[in-house]
Amino acid sequence: GLMAARQAGLDDPARLRRAERTRRVLSLELNKDRDVERIHGSGINTLDIEPVEGRYMLSGASDGDIVLYDLENLSRKPSYTCKALFTVGRSHPDVHKFSVETVQWYPHDTGMFTSSSFDKTLKIWDTNTLQAADIFHFEGTVYSHHMSPVATEHCLIAVGTKSPKVQLCDLKSGSSSHILQGHRQEVLTVSWSPRHEYVLATGSADGRVKLWDVRRASGCLSTLDQYNGEKSKASSEAANTAHNGRVNGLCYTNDGLHLLTIGTDDRMRLWNSSTGENTLVNYGKVGNESRKGLKFAISCGCNPEFAFVPYGSTVAVYTIFTGERITMLRGHYSTVNCCVFQPHFQELYSGSKDCNILAWIPAPREPVPDDTSEKSLPQQHVNPAYEDAWSSSDDEG
């Protein structure tokens, strides 16, 4: 029905795109024909797919190794394995000494990527030479870092460490440019807004989520409050916390209008990112026992949008705006630490403590047999608005 309406010019092309993307996400399954080469010998903490072609994926593991995979099926066979192109392993002079917590591609081309680790460093890598082009050192463990996907005026990397201060490292000058102060405990997760290049969200072990404008001297724009300011001011301890536990995951929706946060209070919350208001969507219990950052993902271009959240040894799929849990993707043998969404083909990749990366691919459509006459097709395939309303007088006799 959507195809017919699209061809007749009755419908907007974007509607067909959204409907098909949504169908593909709802049919995600563990694919028997797609394997990701098993290279890692320890748990996988972080994954990232480059946004330029959507073809190359980075993974970082607990033993400090980083692997780059090519997701493209060059053999054109139905069954194939995503090959590892290279590994930064033990023998590499610049390898991280301890667990790699975050890897991220440079948002504008594949010639550079970044990694941060419990060895108190953030490294900037040249993809072509596989050398560390720059290394930033910190006083404490690095939990998370993020580069803005939309920045044109700055090259700042936000870094969350064991210190309550959020560090901003400038790629242009190679120095730590300035510090955002306001959290009381370690900063577990950081994310730039995909809408405003100077706006940064940070989540901390103190239960708070802060939004910052990095151009302002005071820095902090607001501290998100799960009670929307309705709790009495007398109990100031409870006021202005986003979660009653450590905030270890946050992710903006692709339009930047909403922010999704996860805490060790087993709750996930959706916030209006411009007003800072808790939208009060109820996702139920979202099991979260991670002591460090949790990397979850949000779909792109679907209607409604979905969140893919590591939940024990599964990945839970939620509709963001209603809070409904659609399904649980089961396949890992141990705790899932991270997942990443591939928006071009609506694929999901998840990394786990079991050392595996699994590919969740949309199930193919069921083919319609050729000899089926149109009359026997189920009617719901045709949008009633596009059905013929005329009849010939011969039939009416």
From TrEMBL:
<dbReference type="InterPro" id="IPR020472">
    <property type="entry name" value="WD40_PAC1"/>
</dbReference>
<dbReference type="GO" id="GO:0005694">
    <property type="term" value="C:chromosome"/>
</dbReference>
<dbReference type="InterPro" id="IPR001680">
    <property type="entry name" value="WD40_rpt"/>
</dbReference>
<keyword id="KW-0853">WD repeat</keyword>
<dbReference type="Pfam" id="PF00400">
    <property type="entry name" value="WD40"/>
</dbReference>
<keyword id="KW-0677">Repeat</keyword>
<dbReference type="GO" id="GO:0006283">
    <property type="term" value="P:transcription-coupled nucleotide-excision repair"/>
</dbReference>
<dbReference type="InterPro" id="IPR036322">
    <property type="entry name" value="WD40_repeat_dom_sf"/>
</dbReference>
<dbReference type="GO" id="GO:0043161">
    <property type="term" value="P:proteasome-mediated ubiquitin-dependent protein catabolic process"/>
</dbReference>
<feature type="repeat" description="WD">
    <location>
        <begin position="93"/>
        <end position="135"/>
    </location>
</feature>
<feature type="region of interest" description="Disordered">
    <location>
        <begin position="366"/>
        <end position="397"/>
    </location>
</feature>
<feature type="repeat" description="WD">
    <location>
        <begin position="329"/>
        <end position="360"/>
    </location>
</feature>
<keyword id="KW-0833">Ubl conjugation pathway</keyword>
<dbReference type="InterPro" id="IPR015943">
    <property type="entry name" value="WD40/YVTN_repeat-like_dom_sf"/>
</dbReference>
<dbReference type="GO" id="GO:0000209">
    <property type="term" value="P:protein polyubiquitination"/>
</dbReference>
<keyword id="KW-0158">Chromosome</keyword>
<comment type="pathway">
    <text>Protein modification; protein ubiquitination.</text>
</comment>
<feature type="repeat" description="WD">
    <location>
        <begin position="180"/>
        <end position="215"/>
    </location>
</feature>
<dbReference type="GO" id="GO:0031464">
    <property type="term" value="C:Cul4A-RING E3 ubiquitin ligase complex"/>
</dbReference>
<comment type="function">
    <text>Substrate-recognition component of the CSA complex, a DCX (DDB1-CUL4-X-box) E3 ubiquitin-protein ligase complex, involved in transcription-coupled nucleotide excision repair (TC-NER), a process during which RNA polymerase II-blocking lesions are rapidly removed from the transcribed strand of active genes. Following recruitment to lesion-stalled RNA polymerase II (Pol II), the CSA complex mediates ubiquitination of Pol II subunit POLR2A/RPB1 at 'Lys-1268', a critical TC-NER checkpoint, governing RNA Pol II stability and initiating DNA damage excision by TFIIH recruitment.</text>
</comment>
<dbReference type="InterPro" id="IPR019775">
    <property type="entry name" value="WD40_repeat_CS"/>
</dbReference>
<keyword id="KW-0539">Nucleus</keyword>
<keyword id="KW-0234">DNA repair</keyword>
<protein>
    <recommendedName>
        <fullName>DNA excision repair protein ERCC-8</fullName>
    </recommendedName>
</protein>
<dbReference type="GO" id="GO:0009416">
    <property type="term" value="P:response to light stimulus"/>
</dbReference>
<comment type="subunit">
    <text>Part of the CSA complex (also named DCX(ERCC8) complex), a DCX E3 ubiquitin-protein ligase complex containing ERCC8, RBX1, DDB1 and CUL4A; the CSA complex interacts with RNA polymerase II; upon UV irradiation it interacts with the COP9 signalosome and preferentially with the hyperphosphorylated form of RNA polymerase II. Interacts with ERCC6/CSB (via CIM motif); promoting recruitment to lesion-stalled RNA polymerase II (Pol II). Interacts with KIAA1530/UVSSA. Interacts with a subunit of RNA polymerase II TFIIH.</text>
</comment>
<keyword id="KW-0227">DNA damage</keyword>
<keyword id="KW-0597">Phosphoprotein</keyword>
<dbReference type="InterPro" id="IPR042238">
    <property type="entry name" value="Rad28/ERCC8/Ckn1/ATCSA-1"/>
</dbReference>
<dbReference type="GO" id="GO:0000109">
    <property type="term" value="C:nucleotide-excision repair complex"/>
</dbReference>
<dbReference type="GO" id="GO:0016363">
    <property type="term" value="C:nuclear matrix"/>
</dbReference>
<feature type="repeat" description="WD">
    <location>
        <begin position="240"/>
        <end position="281"/>
    </location>
</feature>
